[in-house]
Design brief:
mainly alpha, 2 helices, about 85% helix, about 0% strand
Length: about 100
């Protein structure tokens, strides 16, 4: 088998350095992707809770407008919050947002 020349050895060394650099960049990009996925999950959960809160507020206001007692308003608001939050989180799960 022929022995590598100096130019060939330099090329192999250069490529070896590039491969190591690329491996470091890939590892860095994988860490960034995991961090961004974590943020997306947190934002998806926050969005679900926010939608539930807005729905509960609307429910409380509508029930108050139609003459419900305070206890009824609280019950309808709580039920709406749980229902809408669960619905949004379920939809996000089915869309694979987290």
């Amino acid at each position: 088998m022929p022995t590598p020349t100096t130019a060939l050895r330099e090329e192999i060394a250069r490529l070896g350095g590039d491969v190591e650099r690329l491996e470091r960049e890939v590892a860095s990009l994988e860490r960034d992707a995991e961090r961004l996925q974590r943020r997306a999950r947190i934002l998806a959960i926050f969005f679900g809770v926010l939608v539930g809160f807005a729905g509960a507020l609307v429910s409380i206001l509508v029930c108050g407008h139609y003459g419900a007692t305070d206890l009824e308003r609280a019950a309808y608001g709580g039920g709406t919050f749980v229902t809408l939050t669960g619905l949004v989180l379920y939809i996000e799960e089915k869309l694979q947002l987290f």
